[in-house]
Amino acid sequence: MFREAEAERVADICARLIGNVMITRTDGSRTPLCAGDIALLSPGHTELWRYERELERLGLAVSSQAGLSLMRRQETQDVLALLRVLADSSDTLAFGALMRGPLVGLTEQDLLDITAALPSVESRPGFFTVRTDPALVRHPLAKSILEELQTLRSQVSMSTPALILAEAIERLNARVIVATRHRNRNARAIANLDALVERARVYGVSGLHAFVRDLQADWESKEKAAEGRVDAAEHAIELVTIHSAKGLEWPVVILINSTTELYRPDQFVHRQSDNSLHWMLGGISPPDLAAARAEESMEEANQRERIWYVACTRARDLLILPHIPQATKNSWFSSVDLGQQALPELEIADLTTKETSSTPRAQNNQSKDTFALERQKVDESAPHIVWRRPSDHDQDRLGDSFETIIATDSPGEIVEIAGAGVIRGIILHKLMEEFLTGELPAESAAATSRGQVLLSQLVTKANEDGPLPDPVEMSGCALRAIALPEIAALRPLLVPELSIWAAGEGYLLSGRADAMTINNGKVGVVIDWKSDIGPSAAVRSAYAGQLKDYLAATGTNRGMLVFLTTGEITEVQTGDRNSVDAS
Predict the structure, then answer these.
(1) Which of 202, 304, 310, 573 lies 20 to 30 angstroms, CA to CA, from 408?
(2) CATH number, domain 375-583, options 2.60.40, 1.10.10, 3.90.1070, 3.90.320
(3) What are the residues whose beta carbons fall under 8 Å from the beta carbon of 378, sequence distance 6 or more?
(4) Do 246 and 39 contact (CB within 8 A), yes or no?
């Protein structure tokens, strides 16, 4: 194959030229040629990964501004396995690939030993997954990685994919591992980690699951995707398309990939001279089609000639042209005669490949005591932020879809409801929200039908075996609550599901109020729906404390705990405060 042979030959030329050819610098000094002085110019993006592979095989760093092989890189596969684990705790294949892969590096024997040491559950052997209790894992590395993964997974529902991935890269020391793996060629791999973080930014709304789904699809299809930009380009051979090379210059330029075939003519021909469009219709060729196609071919030939001119004028000291007599007539090589036959062949047989090494670094003389002192200074200069998230403690909020647990409410004194727990609480909250937004009419049939739909969406294999709530009971419960005199009086001003952010003395607060009355931009009453059947005094006290946090954050002094099942309302008040703007 032409590209395989050319890639191997070009890599060998680069390896022999580096360090053996003297280059005159802009300041007049003469120094040996380095990797950053060489540019490989290609007319297109086709199969450029072959040139990258051959260069890296010889230990040469590559800065690719033309390659679209991000989905072929090992670091992309590592990140994909990591994100699949964070997005889906039941994805044991991804968990095994991560733990066995280069980011962690456990051996198969290590994984077998860890699994064998886990206690049996209900006479069944334990399995090593991301949900395994770290205290049960004896392997120190596996235990630390498991703790980090579980910490990261707890943030999936509260953070964006870009922030989660960036934190995961730092927590798992991915940059250090990648840098060690590639040694003096690590800049490209590290830049690709940053490119994946940037790729995740557009999924701030759709979330981690959507990002993982799309990244998996692109990886499986080897979708063309641009790699990260390498900052330390002076230490790497640059791979650039000819179009991108306009206005740039390098001491040595090598034209590559010229066996790429030209684009086939389109069915429709646009003649620029008279701005007319020509095409065949029903197998009949119009009289002007041949002339229009000839004019188009001439324009394309002139454009290719201009592109080759750009390529040949990018070299300051040495231009190396390919000579491939076997190339087809419909290729970039054959489109313009550069006179290769009249030029002498490049002789590099006498040049020996020199060992490439990374830039020497100053010795690190930092002692353990010095490091501890500097760390103390950093800690003292950075304020410690404590986040308070009252809503995280609610049992009737949806958590990990693969770890949904049917929570048993406190035993009630009067009523017993089948299926009471997380799913029932979620549906009740949703029904109350849609009552207030006007999406759902406060009518029995509509509420029951909506409850059935929500129930079908929430039931998973993890919870379908347990008792499920009754849509009729839930709709009746929600309708009774929305009709309570205290709620009916406030209903015209109630706005559901509002985020709350506030700064307190030594802490930051984030949460979500189930509903608030807002009048002229001012918060009046904060309401918290509760689905408990018979909450204990301790539970009531905890709920009141949560609501007081919201009252303090919004600057109002009146709150209401509304127990949907029993229709009970508990007033919660704080000292007088001036109202603040609601956001």
Answers:
(1) 573
(2) 3.90.320
(3) none
(4) no
